[in-house]
From TrEMBL:
Residue stretches making up the Helicase ATP-binding domain: 1-72
Presence of the UniProt keyword Acetylation in the record: no
Organism: Amphimedon queenslandica (Sponge)
Enzyme class, spelled out: hydrolase
Positions of the CCHC-type domain: 258-273
Name of this protein: RNA helicase
Signal peptide: none
EC annotation from Swiss-Prot or TrEMBL: 3.6.4.13
Keywords, alphabetical: ATP-binding, Helicase, Hydrolase, Metal-binding, Nucleotide-binding, Zinc, Zinc-finger
Length: 298
């Protein structure tokens, strides 16, 4: 947009606009900027939005910003890839780093490990290096040059493991990822779907292992349980024991689950992500804020 403002480039003859990971762009508060870019088009255009999840906020944006939009679903929007074997394991917080080495033995490399916090990514990376694992790490606190080097080393298979925040859950394409390890459960089910979608691509199968414990939000675990049930994956005893009054939501067709975030384990009236968004909106009235309430790279 900076190039457009400075008139270094223009969109006078542009006919197509493609927005990848549209849900995250709206999540991060860039809706106004996207609409500003729309205003630079001089002629009729075709706009395409791509997203693995299709929560209510994206549907509303598409209806208001596009002309008679057509929705094309490959399966249910927000559903997990059926080519991914999902394994959920209960691991105590203090035992996770030790169990990580055992978990890496499940498949040959390359392996992608996700963690919520930048400091935790650095700790995991350092631990793996001490244990002789060929690993690299990326997060928003690293220099662009360091991130590009790490991604290149991992893509070219010179490193076996990439440790990352959710910065690597979207927009980066890695070939033949064998195994995804969620060192911790994301704060919302959308990020979980994006994370495990890094494997099982192009008709190949992959494994996604997720560590959970009592520190996880119960609302997210309910969504995870429902997602596993929908994909006909094994539901571990810890999740089975969660009192789910909403188990029947999985089989209610297009109107099932939460209309805001797409989670299957709750309705919109109980959506923690919507509640957090509303609280954030109330607290930021009068100032522009581009940080998402669910931003996981911190």
């Amino acid at each position: 947009m900076d190039l457009l403002d400075k008139k270094i480039m223009n969109l006078d003859v542009c006919r197509y606009l493609s927005l990848d990971e549209a849900d995250r762009m709206i999540d991060l508060g860039f809706e106004e900027d996207i609409r500003t870019i729309f205003s630079y088009f001089k002629c009729q255009r075709q706009t395409l939005l791509f997203s693995a999840t299709m929560p209510k906020k994206i549907q509303n944006f598409a209806r208001s910003a596009l002309v008679q939009p057509v929705t094309i679903n490959v399966g249910r929007a927000g559903a997990a890839n059926l080519d991914v074997i999902q394994e959920v394991e209960y691991v105590k917080q203090e035992a996770k780093v030790l169990y990580l080495l055992e978990c890496l033995q499940k498949t040959p490399p390359p392996v992608l490990i996700f963690s919520e916090k930048k400091s935790e990514v650095d700790d995991i990376h350092e631990y793996l290096l001490l244990k002789g694992v060929q690993a690299v790490a990326i997060h928003g606190g690293k220099d662009q040059e360091d991130r590009q080097w790490a991604v290149r080393e991992f893509k070219e298979l010179r490193k076996d493991v990439l440790v990352a925040t959710d910065i690597a859950s979207k927009g980066l394409d890695f070939n033949n990822i064998q195994h995804i390890i969620n060192y911790d459960m994301p704060n919302d089910i959308e990020n979980y779907v994006h994370r495990i979608g890094r494997t099982g691509r192009c008709g190949k199968t992959g494994i996604a292992t997720t560590f959970i414990n009592k520190a996880c939000e119960e609302s997210v675990l309910r969504d995870l349980k429902a997602l596993l049930m929908e994909a006909k994956q094994r539901v571990p005893p810890f999740l089975t024991a969660i009192d789910s009054l909403n188990d029947d939501l999985v089989d209610l067709g297009d109107d099932h689950g939460c209309a805001y975030c797409g989670g299957l384990g709750h309705r919109i009236t109980d959506c923690p992500k919507l509640e957090a968004f509303q609280q954030k909106q109330a607290g930021t009235i009068g100032r522009k804020d581009y940080l998402a309430s669910s931003a996981a790279d911190w």
